[in-house]
Amino acid sequence: MISKTAHTEVPSSPMVARYAAAGNTYAAMLEVGRAQKTIFVARYLRLRDLQREIEEGLNVMESSNGANSVIAYGKGGEIASNRRDEQEMFVLCLRILQSALVYVNTLMLQDIFGEPEWARLLTPADRRGLTPLFWSHVRP
User: Fold this and answer.
1) Are 132 and 105 in contact (CB under 8 A)?
2) Can you give the pLDDT at residue 46?
3) pTM value?
């Protein structure tokens, strides 16, 4: 069976065809989603590299959220306005401040690791673990 989309024709799986024939496309899409999730979980459990990659991504996001809580410390880091334009401005300013923090930290790291005695202390694993997103030197 072939499903026609707005631009192309794509082959349907037998599972989708069975649900679509009954007129229940929504149920078919839910079933496809469950199958994709099962495949992903199986890959995740089998592949250590995929687990590491996901963990690293989560660590970066946690670090980013931690920096945001330090930068936007007023009212518990929450946006104080319900107006959309003010919320957008708050988020944009927060991104600019976070980018500035990363830039300054990068310059500091370059200065420190430009010195030969510091450069020799780091192993390749240490260098991979470096991130310019740290904020322990920032005081609100």
Assistant:
1) yes
2) 94
3) 0.51
